[in-house]
Design goal:
The complex is a heterodimer. By secondary structure, chain A is mostly helical. Helix content of chain A is 53%, strand content 3%. Chain A contains 9 helices and 2 strands. The two termini of chain A are 40 Å apart. By secondary structure, chain B is an alpha/beta fold. In chain B, 32% of the residues lie in helices and 17% in strands. In chain B, the strands form 9 sheets. An 8-stranded mixed sheet of chain B has the order 10-9-13-1-18-21-8-22, with helices on both faces. Chain B has a 4-stranded antiparallel sheet with strand order 11-12-14-15. Chain B is globular, with a radius of gyration of 29 Å. The chains are: A mainly alpha, B alpha/beta. At the A-B interface, helix 1, helix 4, helix 5, helix 8 and helix 9 of A face helix 1, helix 6 and helix 7 of B.
Chain lengths: 201, 597
């Protein structure tokens, strides 16, 4: 009996200490790009936004770049200067990014860029319509519903990990401000996008 | 004979293994936890609270330091052997270049003999001048550091990461910092590239080619296009949901870092970069004026306060002077400097990006954007020459008795003399292999004049900022360094890598200066045989370091001790220790030692 009690006590203390020990690390730019393109749709405008705020920000989002992509040419505007042939190359002229770790730790600059990408993506009407179609909502005039929200969270959190309390809070977004349903959906999508936990490794 | 049955043995073993499994986990967690806790809380600091600031002012290339922060003698009777190239002042200039004489002049300040420059004044922000010696109050000069091997890249990287490939001082601070940017480096150098954070942060590297470094830093935090923040009700609702998600996730994740980064980002986005721009413009203007006044509109007593005639041909040199050694004073790359007044070389000189880098450092520290900053300062550019003579041509026309004769004038001057600015000549490089004794004195005097002026202004600003009864300067360490100082050639036509005589100087409110640490040799046979004689700063053994010279690990551990954090090389002894809250030397006073054969 004593042994069983000790085992329980050890298990309890062990699980409590485990929580303290899990350092939080975020996936790198390639994962974030994949998720965002999957949610908002693979369109040129979305690719440009993601390239600007995520893919070109190896310093903030991590993931090593490919050194061989770095081709410099003479800048026609300023012949004494060099210019990157491909503005979207993953090293962005900073070769030290080739030593990057996969993923990164949370940082204010990463969060800020993540926020800006989410804001710009959710600001595009056609993106909202694309997502609503994806989660089988008839049109943008349809009021946000629990069922729709369940499907929506699956896009960011496969398996639907958010609690019913969180979902209820999401449903109430825009209610006080009496926003149009389309905008309520927009800000629900934005909020989910802003919650960086979907990028936790 | 075994006691008990096989069944009993299996039963006990099963219970034991079940029991050991969580115990094993628990011990593992406790040990790992204790380690994780130890990392950020070394020496009693906690993450984000009281993390001190580290500012490395790096001069990649390794300029000569004997004019400024490499005092060679500390007492008048120190047994040093003067080297004609190791000069701090012009002794005699006369009306003709053949009269030139340089000297290692010192001034007695705060109980120490220090290089001549320390008794002079430098431009101040109020338009007047102020004594450079104000810097001494909180300074530590470390000399005679033996780097073990030559090389620019490896030794520059050692400034922050003395163990190659290991964690850097900048990376360790980044790990502890909760500031928006873990570490920032401006310009490019091996020290910047050596950044390595044990926890995996990246350095925020800003290339000097970037036209507006501030934009680059703050573009991440620029105001958003979406106006949902202006709808306060909506913003509250979104924040409420995000808090709920935090709450849910906190049950199985350490969310503090994520939450804190979101709050910092929100703060900076809310503030926007417009306000930053305006503040920064004023700071930039201030340093631009200081740098310009320091290198152009200035007269450094004993250096640039009187006309300095350049080489002219034809000329006759007194028999007692070696013409090659005399000419070597005027050596600049592949030429000898001519012209009526060599001070004119610097009338259009610039120190590119110095003002921008100092302004950014002040701005970043004041706005608490980062705890770790690396500045990479550039050398003097845009020098202009009235007249130069090819060294080769002049040496070819020297008469057999080494006297420049009138009849050889044409050969020397008509083919090879040049006027104006030349790309390959128009700079005073820190890596001054080709700069003769005079050019080295002029160039380094102007550089350190400018550095002193900017440092004093930056420190003033740091002293003015108080929190918890301490000034920002009391919570910071400024490290002025380069990969190495220089070994003066006996030929006086330049200097080479002084990798056995590295110099670092530290400035902090935590230091009661001036302190000078590190033994140097009076002269060594091996270097004398290679053409580097006299006392120039070669590292000599220190008793408290097991009879070996100071190494870069000792300097990094000293910086770490001042920052109150762990050292990237904890086994290397710090040169300072704290007694009653004050930093005191951990090794005996600096001396000049005779070589033991």
């Amino acid at each position: 009996m004593k042994i069983i009690f000790i085992i329980f006590a050890l298990n309890f203390v062990s699980s409590a200490s485990a929580k303290h020990l899990k350092p939080l690390r975020l996936f790198g730019r390639h994962y974030v790009q994949d998720v965002l393109l999957n949610v908002f749709g693979k369109k040129r405008i979305n690719e440009l936004i993601i390239s600007k705020y995520i893919m070109q920000k190896g310093l903030e989002f991590g993931d090593p770049c490919v050194v061989n992509e770095q081709i410099f040419i003479k800048d026609p505007a300023r012949p004494q200067n060099k210019k990157l042939l491909d503005d979207d190359s993953s090293c962005q002229g900073n070769l030290s990014l080739s030593k990057n770790n996969f993923g990164s730790l949370p940082s204010a600059s990463r969060n800020s860029l993540h926020t800006k990408a989410c804001e710009e993506l959710s600001n595009i009407d056609s993106n909202i319509e694309y997502i609503l179609k994806k989660i089988e909502i008839k049109d943008a005039f349809t009021e946000p519903s629990e069922e729709g929200l369940q499907k929506l969270q699956e896009l960011f959190y496969p398996g639907g990990v958010l609690s019913s309390e969180v979902l209820q809070a999401l449903l109430s977004i825009g209610g006080q401000s009496k926003l149009m349903n389309k905008d309520r959906w927009r800000y629900i999508i934005l909020t989910l996008c802003l919650s960086e936990y979907w990028a936790v490794n | 004979m075994m006691k008990g049955s096989r069944r009993d043995f299996l039963k006990k073993a099963s219970i034991l293994s079940i029991g050991m499994s969580p115990l094993n986990q628990l011990l593992g967690h406790i040990l790992k936890g204790a380690y994780q806790e130890f990392l950020p809380s070394a020496h009693g600091q906690t993450i984000g609270q009281g993390v001190r600031n580290y500012l490395l002012i790096n001069m990649p290339g390794g300029p000569a330091r004997w004019v400024f922060d490499q005092p060679l003698i500390l007492k008048k009777d120190d047994p040093y052997i003067p080297h004609p190239m190791v000069s701090t002042k012009i002794k005699n200039v006369g009306n003709d270049f053949t009269a030139l004489e340089l000297e290692y002049a010192t001034v007695h300040l705060r109980g120490l003999e220090l290089p001549h420059l320390w008794q002079l004044s430098v431009p101040a922000n109020n338009g007047k001048t102020r004594p450079l010696s104000e810097l001494l109050d909180h300074s530590l000069f470390i000399r005679g550091c033996d780097l073990g091997q030559d090389g620019h890249e490896n030794n520059n990287a050692k400034l922050v990461a003395p163990f190659p490939g290991g964690p850097s001082m900048t990376g360790i601070l980044a790990d502890q910092s909760t500031r928006p940017l873990p570490s920032i480096s401006l310009g490019s150098s091996a020290a910047s590239r050596a950044f390595k954070s044990p926890r995996g942060f990246s350095d925020y590297a800003i290339n000097s080619e970037s036209l507006n470094a501030l934009d680059k830093i703050f573009q991440s935090f620029g105001r958003d296009q979406n106006n949902f923040r202006s709808n306060h009700e909506l913003k509250k609702e979104i924040d409420h949901v995000l808090d709920k998600i935090d709450q849910q996730m906190s049950s199985h994740l350490a969310i503090d870092a994520l939450k804190s980064s979101r709050e910092k980002a929100e703060f900076l986005i809310h503030k926007g970069i417009n306000g930053f721009d305006q503040d920064f413009a004023q700071i930039l203007d201030k340093y631009t004026k200081l740098v310009e006044r320091s290198i152009r509109q200035t007269s450094i007593l004993g250096v640039t306060d009187q006309k300095i005639p350049g080489v002219h041909l034809p000329v006759e040199i007194k028999k007692e002077r070696n013409p090659l050694l005399l000419l070597a004073h005027y050596h600049q790359e592949t030429t000898y400097l001519g012209g009526s007044d060599l001070r004119d070389i610097f009338t259009q000189a610039v120190l590119p990006d110095w003002a921008k880098q100092f302004a950014l450092a002040e701005y970043i520290l004041k706005n608490e954007l980062s705890n770790s900053i690396v500045l990479n300062l550039s050398f003097l550019h845009n020098l202009t020459f009235e007249e130069t003579f090819s060294t080769l041509a002049v040496e070819q026309v020297l008469s057999p008795d080494f006297t420049l004769c009138k009849q050889n004038k044409n050969a020397a001057s008509s083919f090879y003399s040049r006027k104006g600015t030349f790309y390959y000549l128009n700079r005073f490089q820190f890596d001054s292999h080709g700069c003769g004794a005079l050019m080295t004195l002029l160039g380094t005097s102007l550089i350190y004049h400018s550095l002193g002026s900017c440092l004093l202004e930056l420190i003033d600003q740091m002293k003015a900022m108080k929190s918890d009864g301490q000034s920002l300067f009391d919570q910071s360490v400024i490290h002025v360094s380069a990969e190495f100082s220089r070994m003066p050639r006996d030929k006086l036509d330049g200097s080479d890598h002084g990798w056995v005589g590295h110099v670092s100087s530290l400035y902090s409110g935590l230091i009661n200066g001036p302190l000078v640490l590190g033994n140097i040799y009076r002269e060594t046979k091996i270097f004398k045989s290679m053409g580097y004689s006299g006392t120039w700063g070669q590292g000599a053994p220190v008793e408290e370091l097991n009879q070996r010279p100071i190494n870069m690990g000792n300097i990094t551990s000293t910086v770490a001790a001042l920052l109150g954090t762990e050292s990237p090389v904890p086994r290397e002894k710090s040169l300072l220790r704290f007694e009653n809250g004050k930093a005191v030397p951990n090794i005996s006073s600096a001396q000049i030692l005779e070589e033991k054969v």
